[in-house]
Amino acid sequence: MATEFSSIARPYAEAVFSHASENDKLELWSEMLAFMSVAVNDDSLSKLITNPLVESVKLSDLLIDIGGGRLTQEAQNLIRLLANNKRLIVIPVIAEQFEALKNQSEGAIDVEITSAFEMKPAQEQVIVSALKNKFGREVNISNKTDENLIGGIRIKAGDVVIDGSIKGQLQKLANELGI
Fold first, then answer.
1. Tell me, what's the pLDDT at 14?
2. Which of these, 30, 36, 90, 115, has the minimum number of CB atoms within 10 Å of its CB?
3. 122, 127, 165, 168: which is closest to 145 by C-alpha?
4. Cα–Cα distance, 116 to 146 (Å, whole number)
5. What is the DSSP annotation of 92-124?
6. pTM of the entire structure?
7. What is the pLDDT of residues 101-127, one digit of tens each?
8. For the chain, where are the E strands, in sequence order?
9. Are 110 and 98 spatial neighbours (Cβ–Cβ below 8 Å)?
10. What is the model's pLDDT at position 39?
């Protein structure tokens, strides 16, 4: 979905980032966009958002009500704007692009580490340290486990993928053997 809506989301993400930067509210907007993303990704709300029979005013009011006191007036205005333009569904992509802009401005990079087993904090620190040296930037990591990797880890940092998993090595071997 991210690539499908990325060109639609980009101007919104850039506008929100510019506004948040000017007002020194990057963290606040990061939290609000993350919250909105979770709400929009909820199955029941997602069905309402994609239902053409539900009025945009009702959708925006519902999302604002769900937000309670977590959303500033500017965030509520963004929701109304997106609802009026039938673009609430792109909020997760806006949030993703906003985080990328925020990380770039802060000199950081988001890294997703997938391992066959849950990693220990000491193992994470070794990887973070190595990635800081490799990229020359601060590293924000998120972990997930995937037993299908068999062993090892897969690291995704932006467009860079480092596959040190056993599954990845077996696939590479199979490709070289023409299997």
1. 96
2. 30
3. 165
4. 5
5. HHHHHHHHHHHHHHHTEEEEEEEESSPPPHHHH
6. 0.69
7. 998 888 888 889 999 889 898 999 999
8. 108-115, 138-145, 153-157, 160-163
9. no
10. 93
Specify the residue for token string 């609802």.
Answer: 83
Q: Which residue has the tokens 């101007």?
A: 11
> Which tokens go with 154?
């897969």
Could you say which residues of the chain have pLDDT below 70? 1-3
Tokens standing for residue 120: 């220990």
In this structure, what are the phi and psi dihedrals at residue 160, rounded to the nearest 5 degrees? -90, 130
- Tokens 């053997």, residue located: 177
List, for residues 1-24, the tens digit of each pLDDT value: 456 788 999 999 999 999 999 999
d(CA 110, CA 166): 24
The CA distance from 45 to 37, in Å, is 11
Sheet bearing 138-145, strands edge to edge: 138-145, 108-115, 153-157, 160-163
Domains and CATH numbers, the chain: 2-103 (1.10.520.20), 107-177 (3.40.30)
Beta-bridge partner residues of 138:
108
Distance (Å, whole) CA 40 – CA 32? 12
Which of 86, 82, 106, 104 has the alpha carbon at shortest distance from 33? 82
